[in-house]
Amino acid sequence: MRHFTADDRRAGRSGSPDGQHRRAARRSAVSQPLAQRDPALNRRDPLLAPARLATPRAFHHARRSERLASAEHHAPRRPRLARRQDRLPSRPDALFLAAVSKPTPVFYIFHGDNQFELRAALRDLRARMAEADATGDLNISQFDGATASVAQVISTAQMVPFLADRRLVIVHGMLTHLAPQPRRGKGRSEDSAPEAPQSTTALEALLAALPTLPETARLVFAEPTTLRETHPILKFAKREDSRGLVKLFAIKHDPKSHPDHPKWDSAWLSAWIAKRVEHYGASIERRAITTLAQLVGQDLYALDNECAKLAAYVGASRPITEKDIATLTSYVPEANIFDIVEALAKGDAKTALSLMHRSIERFGESPLGILAMINRQFRLLIQVREALDDPRCEAELRQTEDFKNLSEFALNKLRAQARRFPLPELERIYLRLLEIDHSIKVGKMTDVLALDLLASGLASQA
User: Fold this and answer.
1) What is the CATH architecture of 332-461?
2) Burial class (CB in 10 A: 0-12, 13-18, 19+), 101
3) Distance CA 435, CA 432 (A)
4) What are the structural domain ranges in the chain?
5) Mean pLDDT, 10 residues at a time, the chain of 462 residues
6) φ, ψ for residue 63 (rounded to 5)?
7) Rounded to an integer, what is the distance from CA 198 to the centroid of its chain?
């Protein structure tokens, strides 16, 4: 094997044919881009090593020319903060934004008049705790805020969770129970009780204890009503450094309704019904939504029960219709009672008997139950008729036990029906109902016979 000598290296720089060949190869390599060069030029080849060492400036200029020609070099350099933000998500979700802007909450305030949604949120919290921890309900505690003390609640929330990362403590109604009473003006009555000192002391103790809750605590205050904005705990929870979260579960009311007897917003209620039906895997027609809302009234629990029943009956094959509601909803007999009373008041015995026996055979209503509904309906009609004759009685009407939970739909139908009959006629029918009820209780007649005698007797007197 032949070894290179100093003469050979000098020959590479001389004008010999071998040296000229090497210089030509070097010039062609410099003139080409780096990616297109001969790979042999980038290796430590003994033949090219002297030439590369001899002309390092040529390679430097070639690399610099190639870098200046690239598009990335001419792009403006972004600020360091912008380059750092590239590592963040392009569209951060609400959870990410909450984590960046505020620390993880350790106590929650759920309040509002929508108790259906509030209790659903509590069930969801319990379910997530059960899924995350294998201990089940061992790290879940519940208290009645009217009887439990602040020290008892805080000590439970500060306990180390058992084989888990969190401890859930739910307190029902404590903030409402400890809420300071609104101050009255100079004309306050003498019997108005001042704010209890123990409530103020408990609020101060709770305010002092909330910042000391550990990261393992999840303390939830579930309130049955909407808290005032001036509530000390609510104001503290809305601070950025409080580690608290406030969630309002409110029912949207019609702004035109009376404040003492608020009426729910029809659009909000219709959307709520459609959402619950969709939750159960079905759909419902718009007219059916209106019918169901009018029949059931302002009761979210009853509406949810009817939505679940209708969705299970119809399924996902077709939307729920008004016919399905008339067939399945248990509130239909109460709606039919208007027609029965209408026929009885007019003396139409045939129609009244047909409707009463239809309710017995089709809906499974008992004769005594029908008599009780007829009795109640005429009692309501008498009160509505009196309010129509004397408008001053309208405000007192809504305060009575019979009208407190009555839906606006039912009240409007009562007004329309009471306008068609004079008060003496309604009182006469009501007295007859009392006589029949007494006869059934003393055993003079059966309940089915009582219905027939009621219809025929009122028809003969019409």
Assistant:
1) Up-down Bundle (1.20)
2) exposed
3) 5
4) 6-66, 104-179+200-248, 266-318, 332-461
5) 54 53 57 48 42 53 65 58 51 49 83 92 86 76 89 92 88 87 51 54 90 92 91 90 91 80 86 94 92 83 90 91 81 65 80 80 74 86 88 74 70 82 88 87 84 77 57
6) -65, -40
7) 35
